[in-house]
Amino acid sequence: MKGQVPGLWALLGEFTELAPAFTAATRAMSGVGEHAEERYQAALGELRARPQGDLVALVRRGWESLPRAAYIERWGLVQLLTDLRLSSACELLGEMVATPIPHERGPGEEHLHDHRFPPAVRELILRTTAVEGLARLAGEGNDRAVGLLAQHVDHDHRAVRVACIIALRELGDQAGVDLAGLVAEPDREVLGFQVTDLEDVRRIDRVDHILHPGSADGPQPEPRSPAY
């Protein structure tokens, strides 16, 4: 991952056999270009060929030891675990979701990896990414993943609750849980949320009615260049 802090990945020294494949996968994750996804999937395949227990142990070590301020690296760990779809990663993904979200800034957080999201939002993104990991495993028939999703339907943070509810709803009968009975009254509206694939969203071609409110049904003004 780009922008690594010196010594931040010293933990790889404890996993010398995994280090090359792990490093290759994290670099491929942020790759760009026509064949970026193909290269990333190939790197994931290399990692899946390694002992699952070692992979999970490496990610756990990073999750537990990296400072909160290293948001990009921490998110990369969670996303990598999500993309690997390892059945043995269920418990760790569940622990990631369950880890309490601190509200105060951690040491050095004001300077390290400056990011447009405030700390609490970053922490929520990490946990909803872990929920996605559980959802993928649940979709492959992993009962423990289903149980963990159901467990966190009453998570302290609404964003995580919503992610779990939607994941279970998308599983439908495959989940084998009474979702309506699990969801608290304030969150019942989520059961009716419509999830739309981004590719199905109609592209907005004209924004005149946004730039000039009230003009959508009448003559359109001449386009104006935005002021910089």
Kindly provide the radius of gyration, computed on alpha-carbon positions and rounded to a whole number of angstroms: 21 Å
Number of strands: 0
Rounded to the nearest angstrom, the distance between the terminal CA atoms is 33 Å
Largest sheet: none
**How large a portion of the residues is in β-strands, by DSSP E?**
under 5%
Oligomer: single chain
Mean of all residue-level pLDDT scores:
82
Q: Secondary-structure element sequence?
A: HHHHHHHHHH
Task: Give an overview in words.
By secondary structure, this protein is mainly α. Helix 6 packs antiparallel against helix 7 and helix 6 packs parallel to helix 8 (158-171). 50% of the residues lie in helices and 0% in strands. The chain contains ten helices and no strands.
